[in-house]
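Structure (tokenized):
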């Protein structure tokens, strides 16, 4: 799903899987999440889970890159 979000927002493509809402609706949700910092909180939670599952003691310096 993160790849789909990036592609939709970056404008590389507006095609989303069939079970997603229309592109405009999808973008509006992402835009609201970005503005209200929900998106950053989700990425932080993912970063914490990845580091904990890998046994890494610190997740503060880890970056997430989305293709």
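Design, position by position:
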């Amino acid at each position: 799903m993160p790849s789909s979000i990036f592609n939709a927002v970056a404008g590389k493509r507006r095609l989303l899987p069939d079970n997603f809402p229309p592109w405009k609706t999808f973008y509006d949700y992402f835009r609201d999440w970005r503005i209200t910092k929900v998106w950053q909180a989700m990425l932080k939670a993912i970063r914490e889970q990845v580091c904990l599952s890998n046994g890494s003691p610190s997740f503060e310096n880890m970056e997430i890159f989305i293709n």
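Reviewer-requested clarification: The chain has a mean pLDDT of 76. The first helix runs from residue 2 to 10.
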